[in-house]
Amino acid sequence: MVEDRYKELAQRVDEAIGFLNAAGATADNPIMNTVEFWVSHECLHLQYEQALTREDSTTGHYYDCSAHMLWVGERTRQLDGAHVEFLRGVSNPLGIKYGG
To answer: For binding phosphoenolpyruvate, which residues are annotated in this chain's numbering (predicted)?
Structure first.
C-alpha cells in the first residue's frame, strides 16, 4: 500500500516537473532563482520612520527605508496631521486604507 502511494506521488511530481520544463521554468531560467520581496506598513511611529528616511544621492528624493510602500490608515489619516505631512515629503509608493 505505502509503496503504491509513493510510486503514484513520485509519478505526479515527475509529471509536474516535466510540465515546468516544457513551460521553460528550468533551473537555468533566472526567474526560478530570484524573488521580489516587498514590505508595507502603516506609517504610525513618526520617530521610527524619520530615523529610517534617507536622501537618494542620485535624485535628491527622500525615501523612508523602513518599507517599500507606506500607508495611511484609521490612526494616521488626519489631513492636517503630522503623518500625512511626513508622507508628503517621501517618494515611496503610498497606500490609503479604506474602511467602510
So the answer is: 74-75, 97
Q: Give the global pTM.
A: 0.64
Phi, psi of 34 (to 5 degrees): -130, 155
> Which residue has cell 516587498?
38
Q: Which ranges of the chain would DSSP assign to H, the alpha helix?
A: 2-22, 46-51, 82-88
74: annotated binding-site residue?
yes
Banded pLDDT at 66 (limits 50, 70, 90): very high
Residue 34 in 3-state DSSP? coil
Count of residues in the chain: 100
Backbone angles phi, psi at 71, to 5 degrees: -140, 155
Report the distance separating Cα 64 and Cα 33, nearest Å.
Answer: 28
Question: Which amino acid type is present at position 38?
Answer: W
Same domain, 50 and 88: yes
Q: Which domain holds residue 62?
A: 40-96
Interatomic CA distance for residues 64 and 86, integer angstroms: 10
